[in-house]
Design a protein that fits this description.
The structure holds two protein chains of two kinds.
Chain A: H1 11-21, H2 33-43, H3 50-60, H4 64-73, E1 85-90, H5 93-97, H6 100-111, E2 124-129, E3 141-143, E4 146-148, H7 153-164
Chain B: H1 18-23, H2 28-36, H3 39-49, H4 61-66, E1 77-82, H5 91-98, H6 100-114, E2 118-123, H7 128-143, E3 159-164, H8 174-181, E4 205-209, H9 210-222, H10 224-228, E5 231-232, E6 235-236, E7 238-245, E8 251-256, E9 259-260, H11 261-266, E10 280-284, E11 292-294, H12 295-299, E12 308-309, H13 311-314, H14 318-321, E13 329-334, H15 339-353, H16 359-376, H17 382-395, H18 403-427, H19 431-434
Parallel strand pairs in B: 1-2, 1-4, 2-3, 7-13
Antiparallel strand pairs in B: 5-6, 7-8, 9-12, 10-11, 10-13
The chains are: A alpha+beta, B alpha/beta.
The complex binds flavin mononucleotide (FMN), iron/sulfur cluster and FE2/S2 (inorganic) cluster.
Chain lengths: ~170, ~450
């Protein structure tokens, strides 16, 4: 039987959470919600399940609904499971001028999934995002912390190959 | 040599690090301001400089600072707006990535002027590398007694914290940003009260753009009147322009206000002309929210004068034949660009980013996106074009925050200047799927 690991931050993350809360005045710990949701998403599998959000609510002494409404407002929080590599392809005007839509189609075809979907092996998710302030090096996508700019078919091939072998 | 203020030391070795930055004269404005000036005299210099907000609205920074409620007895806050999400804009990211200490220096001096002991830098969550850079930069400054308690022994204390956003254009709007920083959805607030009176945690707050704050050290070092002497008229100093689209040399350029647009587009020092020897069709000069202009109106005003890169010149002719400097996101389109398709992608952006509080914005952006999709895909009707104009008029000025206007202006201006291209899409529903309209006939300005 597969059991879900308990939802509890590692010691390091717990320390970081404590440190983040000190950035705000007494009683304003709700301000830590966005940064802590990022930590939670990174630590608990790349997305925010209801139990994870409830856990964050508990830490910050908030009502669960206060966490749900924030998590659903911001596009960086994933409310369903995602693949190991989330390819966040920019689809806004300036990228489109430089072939962004075509690059998106190319990635979709290559991975056999549409934007918003995850490959069956759980490796890749394609997500469309809005302008990431990289329009001078369009078309572009973000994967994890990294921006991949001036994308061409060849560059996309290389990157996907690289991720597959990781 | 064109005047450089923000990027003057860009190529100094090690400018990214504390030591390199210091060697290039960095942090002298902190010494000067904290040791020999009063907060009010710092503010006066910024006023004299005529420095205007670089986030988009162009509101004079010194004047905004003077509105800060200093009598309430509550803590005062400075927030640096590093949300940079206006499509076509990538200058703040560039500045923070290359010369992060310049921003920290600007924040220290500005916080001192405002009497703030805590400053937050609100950075869009996607800028994960920038967030790390800023945190390290603040730590370097702290090690050198420029951040923290009793800075340089002057008795002034300041903490600077980096706050991460999580993907929402609307958190660039200052009150949406404040809500987000309080851990809520980024729903903009009704104004008044303005943040200068009721801002973060109900306390007096100033929100300024990265580039605005980064200009403060030079002003303090060289004096407000020296800054005011650069540029043209009420557009003083320099401006970072993010240039993208169909040009030979996309990138971030620091220009002196008043540079002719034609020179900016065609000179090798800047954009280097249109790529592949194509013709210029249109420009969106100040980020996706400002009106689009066809080539003849971006190069010259309706009066036939050369158009300049300044707040006044770009808006010459109002919305009939002018546009705005906005955030300085300069998006260039060549002769092969489909104006309808481009507008559809812009409108999809505003629909996606509407926070949903106001019906005209929430519903109107969705309707506009749908209609534009229809026209672009060969299913449009002639009356759809007027319907778009009608919807845009009903959004403009009827919403809590300016995102509504920002969604309406691109639509209204594209139809004003390129109506024939929209009509062609309706008249040639099959043709428009396989080829672009090209330059068509140039719209006539009335
Ligand atoms: C929808 C919307 C998005 C905005 N996005 C940004 C942004 O990303 N960065 C920014 O500095 N200002 C942005 N602004 C402008 C801010 O509301 C505010 O005017 C600015 O941060 C003030 O700083 P400044 O006076 O130094 O320009 C935005 C405004 C609106 C209405
Ligand atoms: S104009 Fe749009 S984004 Fe601004 S508050 Fe209203 S609904 Fe929200
Ligand atoms: S439009 Fe894609 S990064 Fe700006």
């Amino acid at each position: 039987m597969v059991t879900n690991p308990p939802i509890i931050f590692s010691t390091d993350t717990s320390e970081l959470v404590k440190k983040i809360i000190t950035r705000y005045p007494e009683g304003r710990q709700k301000s830590a919600l966005l940064p802590i949701l990022h930590l939670a998403q990174a630590e608990f599998g790349g997305w925010l399940s209801v139990p994870v959000m409830d856990y964050v609510a508990d830490i910050l002494n908030l009502k669960p609904i206060e966490v749900y409404e924030v998590a659903s407002f911001y596009s960086m929080y994933n409310l369903k499971p995602v693949g190991n590599y989330v390819l966040e392809v920019c689809r806004t005007g300036p990228c489109c001028l430089m072939g962004g839509e075509e690059i998106l189609q190319y990635i979709e075809k290559k991975l056999g999934i549409k934007a918003g979907e995850t490959t069956q092996d759980g490796k890749f998710t394609i997500k469309t995002v809005e302008c990431l302030a990289s329009c001078g090096t369009a078309p572009m996508m973000q994967v994890g912390d990294d921006y991949h700019e001036n994308l061409t078919h060849q560059r996309v091939d290389e990157l996907i190959e690289e991720f597959k072998n990781c | 040599m064109p005047t450089k203020i923000l990027l003057k030391d860009l190529h100094q070795p090690g400018i990214f690090s504390y030591d390199g930055y210091r060697k290039a004269g960095g942090y002298t404005s902190v010494e000067k301001a904290l040791k020999s000036m009063s907060p009010d005299s710092v503010m006066e210099e910024v006023k004299t400089a005529g420095l205007r907000g670089r986030g988009g609205a162009g509101f004079p920074a010194g004047l905004k600072w003077s509105f800060l409620d200093r009598k309430s007895g509550k803590p005062r806050y400075l927030i640096c707006n590093a949300d940079e999400s206006e499509p076509g804009t990538f200058k703040d990211r560039f500045l923070m990535e290359k010369i992060p200490h310049l921003l920290i220096e600007g924040i220290i001096v500005s916080s001192f002027a405002l009497g703030a002991n805590v400053a937050y830098i609100y950075v869009r969550g996607e800028f994960k590398k920038i967030i790390k850079i800023l945190e390290n930069t603040i730590e370097e400054a702290r090690t050198n007694n420029l951040v923290g308690k009793n800075i340089l022994g002057t008795g002034y204390s300041l903490e600077i914290y980096v706050q991460t956003g999580a993907g929402a254009y609307i958190c660039g709007e200052e009150t949406g940003l404040i809500e987000s920083l309080e851990g809520k959805r980024g729903n903009p607030r009704l104004k008044p009260p303005f943040p200068a009176v009721v801002g973060l945690y109900g306390c007096p707050t100033v929100v300024n753009n990265v580039e605005t704050l980064a200009a403060v050290p030079w002003i303090i070092n060289n004096g407000g009147s020296a800054y005011a002497g650069i540029g043209i008229g009420r557009s003083t100093g320099t401006k970072l322009i993010s240039a993208c689209g169909h040009i030979n040399k996309p990138g971030v350029y620091e220009i002196e206000m008043g540079l002719p647009v034609e020179e900016f587009i065609y000179s090798d020092e800047y954009c280097g002309g249109i790529r592949n020897e194509k013709k210029l069709k249109a420009v969106v000069a100040g980020g996706s929210s400002v009106p689009i202009l066809p080539s003849h109106l971006i190069l010259k005003t309706a009066k036939g004068e050369p158009r300049l890169m300044s707040y006044e010149s770009l808006s010459d002719g109002g919305f009939v034949s002018g546009t705005m400097l906005g955030s300085g996101g300069f998006i260039v389109m060549d002769e092969d660009t489909c104006i309808v398709r481009n507008l559809w992608t812009f409108t999809r952006f505003y629909h996606h980013e509407s926070c949903g509080q106001c019906s005209p914005c929430r519903e109107g952006t969705g309707w506009m996106e749908k209609i534009l999709h229809r026209i672009e895909h060969g299913h449009g009707k002639m009356h759809d074009i007027d319907l778009l104009v009608d919807i845009s008029k009903k959004i403009e000025g009827t919403t809590i925050c300016p995102l509504g206007d920002a969604a309406a202006w691109p639509v209204a201006s594209a139809i004003r200047h390129f109506r024939d291209e929209f009509e062609w899409h309706v008249l040639e529903p099959k043709e428009c799927l396989i080829r672009n309209y090209g330059m068509g006939k140039e719209a006539v300005v009335i």
